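Suppose a colleague, Dr. K., hands you the sequence of a protein chain of 136 amino acids and asks what its three-dimensional shape might be. Before reaching for any lab equipment, you can write down a predicted structure in token form. Begin with the sequence itself:
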Amino acid sequence: MHEVFEHTADLGLRVEAPSLELLLAEAGAGLFEILAGDMHQIRCRDERTFDVPGTDPEWLLLDWTTELLAAFTVDRMLFREFAVSVHPAGLCGTARGEPYDPAIHTLAHEIKAVTQHELDVRRTATGWEATLIVDI
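The predicted structure, expressed as tokens, is then:
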């Protein structure tokens, strides 16, 4: 589950999941919901794999979402489905989607960056939760 919330001139994302892997996958979905709005407009035609080094959950979240945003910024890729596995040296994530086409897709927000502001990832009694702020 994820929830988008307003934060001064930015937008925030709160994510909850039973595992760190699912939390990171859900954060990817939340990021692209902020970017694209209606996720159903994105077809899962292409797949990209991302390897993110590190062990700290906060930095994994920040680096993973930054890599996803860079794929949109540089290659104009919109993603809809995400799978993540965490291993001792970092994470391996897969994102499925398609290239942005203004004839097919509408964008809800321009995301300039994923920020460290209020970045938080923590274990809870029922799994994991995170807060992430994006600069729009």
